[in-house]
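Lab notebook page, bench 4
Experiment: in silico fold of construct C2
Operator: M.H.
Input chain length: 47 residues
Purpose: comparison with the prior construct
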Amino acid sequence: MAAPTSRFGFVAFAETWNGRLAMLGFVIGLGTELLTGQGILSQVGLG
């Protein structure tokens, strides 16, 4: 019986989802910056 493959750590499955979520976050951040006219740092009160 084969051992179950891990979905945590530095495995292809986890890295694929990490990349997808990072791209989604970047697009959301860019969209809110375009809609509000403020940079991301100023939106969270750091700029």
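Observations: The chain has a mean pLDDT of 88. The helical segments are 12-36, 40-43.
Next step: discuss at group meeting.
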